[in-house]
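A favour between colleagues. Tell me how you read the following sequence-structure pair.

===
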Amino acid sequence: MNAEVVDLGLPEGYSAEVAAKGLTNPSGVSFSPSGTLTICDSGDGRVLTLEAGELKEFITGFPTEYWKVDAESGDKRFKLGPLSAIWLDAETLAVTNAGLGDGAETVVFFKGPGKVEAGEATNSVPPTSDDKADKGEGNLTGLTASADGKTIYVAGQGSDAKTWVLKVDVADKKLSPLFSADDNDIAINSPMATALWGDDAILTLYSGAGGKDDGLIVAWDLKSGKPTKQWTVPGLLDPMGFAVIPGAKKLAVVDNNWALTEVKPGKLAIVTLPEESGAAEVEVLTDKLMGPVSCTFGPDGKLYIGQLGKEFDKNEGQVIAVSGLK
């Protein structure tokens, strides 16, 4: 069966196709050690795998919540459940149970397919500030595993009162705060994704305020726990996902172009980080994605992008595979 080609207006040498569709507010995408695409079908409260071109349920029964409720109309918007999943080995999948609400969310470990109740969960993280709006850590997303698999790094968006990159000690299943933007005079909030950057640093992507050109990438030193460099990403309004391009010191970044009432066209860009802090070099490849939220490279070298599709809270979500990035 031929793949469904997507015209994104990409430059010569690039191409795009649909890898999966019929998803509801899809979020994190990742691959198993054997190369199986794994998708957080967030709005449907499940994690799926793509096997021989067919979507199959892997973990089901995750609780879901609506991220926003319109204060005037009472309309509920953006149904969310598991937001990120990552394989630690051929058997172990870690998933953020992000539909529980701030202060109750955990990372859950699974040894095979089944129901969410079969997993082994970490603790949750309570409020870390005196702000009454701080209910604890929530909207856990952007999982990255350390090279030795002993630690998982997590982006937390529980409250703008204090934002965190957290960590999970895999051996004892303990979730705890690690890096705080607010404690280090970083005014930009909403950490969305993490990535290993060399042997001693973690990159964190902050989307900032919706609709504003204030996104930020921060390099955190793992030994000191301090930010060492910061880069703005000019022209990207709401960057939500990134992935290190294999074999290059560059990033693929997807810009959601966030709006509460509709899905707007989003961008895919190649981002080069200068040696020193400042503005990153941003090369936009397309502005015709529909609400991209995450991305990862597959073993085939393609970039797999989870996007909301034409409408959120409907089964319009897709995973798009883009070839040619290098």
Observations:
- The domain at 4-323 is CATH 2.120.10.30 (Neuraminidase).
